[in-house]
């Protein structure tokens, strides 16, 4: 199982979109500064997840969300699952 996820940094007021086969480990790497793209927004919290059966599907969905280039789109996506 693969997960597309959205993280939120309160300190930077920013979202980060990614995908992983092990979300728990991936979040740990984000929050210990071992991920170049998120090391300056600690701590990060998971605000959205969507599971897929293949890595390709998870990656495609990640790219779809990123192509929207809109925090408003991301907020609507997060709120639609609450």
Keywords for this structure?
about 40% helix, GIY-YIG endonuclease, 3-stranded antiparallel beta sheet, alpha+beta, 3 strands
Give a verbal description of the structure.
38% of the residues lie in helices and 29% in strands. It contains three helices and three strands. The radius of gyration is 12 Å and the shape is globular. It has helices at 23-31, 55-67, 71-79, and strands spanning 2-9, 14-20, 44-52. It has a single domain (2-79), classed as 3-Layer(aba) Sandwich (GIY-YIG endonuclease), CATH 3.40.1440. The chain is α+β, with helices and mostly antiparallel strands. A hairpin with a 4-residue loop joins strand 1 and strand 2 (14-20). InterPro entries: GIY-YIG_endonuc, GIY-YIG_endonuc_sf. Residues 1-75 form the GIY-YIG domain. Keywords: Endonuclease, Hydrolase, Nuclease. GO terms for molecular function: endonuclease activity.
Layout of helices and strands:
Layout: E1 2-9, E2 14-20, H1 23-31, E3 44-52, H2 55-67, H3 71-79
Antiparallel strand pairs: 1-2, 1-3
Domain GIY-YIG: 1-75
GO molecular function: endonuclease activity
Pfam families: GIY-YIG (PF01541)
């Amino acid at each position: 199982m693969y997960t597309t996820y959205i993280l939120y940094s309160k300190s930077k007021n920013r979202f980060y979109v990614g995908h992983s086969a092990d979300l728990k480990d991936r979040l740990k790497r984000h929050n210990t500064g071992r991920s170049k793209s998120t090391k300056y927004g600690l701590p990060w919290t998971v605000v959205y997840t969507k599971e897929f059966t293949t890595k390709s599907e998870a990656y495609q969905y990640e790219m779809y969300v990123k192509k929207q280039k809109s925090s408003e789109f991301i907020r609507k996506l997060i709120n639609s699952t609450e």
